[in-house]
Amino acid sequence: MSQADDITEARLSRPSLMLKPLENKKSNAQYLFADRSCHFLLDTIGKRGYRKVLCVGTPRLHELIKLRNQEGKGDPMKSLLLDVDFREQCGDAHGLELPILL
After folding, report:
1. What PANTHER family does this protein's entry cite (predicted)?
2. What sign does the CA torsion over 17, 67, 24, 4 have?
């Protein structure tokens, strides 16, 4: 079974988990944090009282913020993703905001 055949609603809500990092690290500079790191960052941001988050090259953190808002966990946060990866545009199909491409 190919990865395309194994697309579920849960996977579509986290498109960055399905995408491989872009090869050129200098010009693409993405931070594809592990879930544990994303949860730590999000918990820390929330504990400090921030409700607006600018995610620069951090699509997984942006996705997690959106998912937590949809699930009603914690105080709602606004998140804006700035990224150069055009592949992230597919995230809007499931209520995730489109990134601003640089």
Report:
1. RRNA N6-ADENOSINE-METHYLTRANSFERASE ZCCHC4, ZINC FINGER CCHC DOMAIN-CONTAINING
2. positive
Which two three-digit tokens encode residue 101?
């491409």
Instruction: Give CA 50 to chain center in angstroms.
Output: 17
Q: Which residues contact 83 (CB under 8 A, 6 or more apart)?
A: 30, 55, 56, 57, 59, 99, 100, 101, 102
* H or E stretch at 70: helix 59-71
What pLDDT digit, counting tens, does each position of 5-50 carry? 566 665 556 666 666 666 655 655 666 788 899 999 999 999 999 9
Domain segments of the chain: what residues? 4-19+30-101
Q: Token digits for 54?
A: 């600018």
Half-sphere exposure of 13 (CA within 13 A, CB side): 11
Q: Hey, what amino acid is at 89?
A: Q
CA atoms within 13 A on the CB side of 18: 19
Tell me which residue has tokens 């194994």: 6
Would you state the structure tokens that stand for residue 15, as one six-digit string?
Answer: 């498109």
Residue 73 CA to residue 45 CA, distance in Å, equals 14
